[in-house]
């Protein structure tokens, strides 16, 4: 997830491996422990803690009853090397900002998973030499944050790199073995047929390594989907793929299957409303599926009325909604009852007031990951090195829309 969905987060070809603790309670670095059930880790929506106007996790917990968050993203350093960083720039070893947010969530009785990968940047599976060194890098994050959950979001170009996927799947297996009780899920791209060629290759890699996670999830969006019916059809087809690949019964395959959606307007302009989420949630629970999550909480709020439906943003959904409407479907999947709110009106509320504009974008300037500019009355942040590429929300564009200014 690193076009708008993932940097924003959550998919054209996408592979995600989520690891969450099963029966044990991990202790964080501060000595406190969080006892959150597996179902919460399976329901944890994505949250970018350092980018895309991060919402306050505690406020979301209070408003919805949500207890688990999927923090994104861990990458290899932009300058090279096999050590974990946040977004390629902030080393995990010296991090205090994300840790403070994790501690605050745990203080309220919740917990987090940490997500690895995304669409842009260099993944550790690409940078590290083998599965063991890849696992050792991820173990640093598990140890520092006392993690019970870790999510591998494996996308282009790593998704298409056989050696890198071998490293990631191998690392997941090692972490599962070295952290007894870990709950492991693997998520890959969604297509109308369930998943595409690279997704099937990933499943075969897991099979060849003897790696059996709790579930495999697909991301049925950014692939010509049209509402919930097309998504549930893809989930049905993916179930058949799981059966044929692993020799599972239909029921066993569903018990090892998950869904990861995108709330509101997708990168390719598909629209997924609250009603679509409810339909997929009903499908997931009635079929005994193991995971239901979405990209992202940063987007789980309404855009300004003029923008509704007109663009894909990292900080709002482009559909009429109350703040945190989509998070409540995760709460339901976890087995809790979220508080009720008044349905949004056609006008709806607006996102927070626009901020000041950054320095204007220039075709002649060189920008690197994290640089901010303004263009067409929006602020934008560079995902990676770029020059003479106008800020836009199209697939593959190097800019993330940070909203009006």
Describe the structure in your own words.
It is a single chain. The protein is of the alpha/beta class and 405 residues long. Helices cover 30% and strands 21% of the residues. A hairpin with a 2-residue loop joins strand 15 and strand 16 (378-382). Helix 6 (131-145) packs across helix 7, helix 8 (197-208) packs parallel to helix 9 (228-246) and helix 9 runs parallel beside helix 11 (274-286). The longest helix has 19 residues, at 228-246. The protein is globular, with a radius of gyration of 19 Å. Mean pLDDT is 85; it is low at 6-17, 19-33 and 345-354.
Average of per-residue pLDDT values: 85
What does the radius of gyration come to?
19 Å
How much of the polypeptide forms β-strand, as a percent range? Answer: 15-25%
The largest sheet, given as strand count, sense and whether it forms a barrel, is:
11 strands, mixed
Number of beta-strand segments: 18
By helix and strand content, what is the structural category? Answer: alpha/beta
Fraction of residues in helix: 25-40%
Total helices: the number is 12
User: What is the succession of H and E elements?
Assistant: HEHEHEEEHEHHEHEHEHHEEEHEHEEEEE
Unreliably modeled segments: 6-17, 19-33, 345-354
Distance between the termini: 25 Å
Shape: globular
């Amino acid at each position: 997830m690193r076009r708008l969905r993932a940097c924003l987060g959550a998919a054209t070809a996408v592979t995600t491996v989520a690891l969450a603790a099963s029966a044990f309670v991990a202790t964080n670095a501060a000595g406190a422990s969080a006892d959150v059930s597996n179902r919460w880790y399976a329901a944890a929506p994505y949250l970018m803690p350092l980018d895309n106007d991060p919402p306050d996790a505690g406020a979301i917990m209070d408003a919805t009853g949500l207890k688990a968050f999927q923090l994104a993203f861990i990458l290899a350093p932009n300058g090279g090397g096999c050590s974990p960083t946040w977004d390629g720039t902030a080393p995990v070893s010296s991090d205090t900002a994300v840790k403070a947010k994790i501690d605050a969530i745990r203080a309220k009785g919740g917990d987090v998973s940490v997500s690895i990968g995304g669409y842009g940047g260099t993944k550790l599976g690409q940078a590290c030499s083998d599965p063991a060194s890849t696992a050792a890098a991820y173990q640093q994050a598990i140890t520092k944050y006392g993690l019970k959950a870790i999510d591998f979001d494996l996308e282009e170009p790593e998704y298409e790199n056989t050696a890198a996927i071998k490293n990631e799947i191998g690392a997941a297996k090692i972490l599962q073995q070295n952290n007894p009780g870990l709950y492991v899920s693997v998520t890959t791209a969604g297509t109308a047929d369930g998943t595409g060629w690279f997704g099937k290759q990933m499943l075969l890699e897991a099979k060849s390594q003897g790696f059996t996670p709790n579930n495999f999830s697909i991301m049925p969006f950014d692939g010509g989907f049209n509402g919930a019916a097309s998504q549930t059809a893809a989930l049905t087809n993916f179930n058949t793929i799981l059966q044929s690949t692993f020799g599972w019964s239909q029921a066993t395959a569903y018990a090892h299957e998950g869904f990861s959606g995108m709330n509101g307007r997708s990168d390719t302009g598909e629209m997924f409303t609250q009603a679509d989420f409810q339909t997929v949630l009903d499908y997931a629970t009635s079929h005994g599926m193991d995971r239901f999550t979405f990209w992202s909480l940063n987007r789980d709020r309404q855009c300004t009325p003029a923008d509704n439906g007109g663009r894909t943003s990292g900080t709002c959904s482009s559909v009429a909604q109350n703040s945190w409407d989509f998070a409540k479907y995760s709460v339901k999947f976890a087995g809790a009852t979220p508080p009720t709110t008044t349905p949004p009106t056609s006008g709806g509320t607006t996102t927070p007031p626009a901020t000041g504009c950054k320095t204007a974008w220039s075709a002649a300037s060189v920008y690197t990951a994290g640089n901010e500019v303004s263009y067409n009355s929006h602020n934008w942040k560079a995902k990676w090195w770029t020059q003479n590429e106008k800020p836009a929300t199209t697939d593959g564009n190097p800019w993330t829309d940070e909203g009006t200014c």
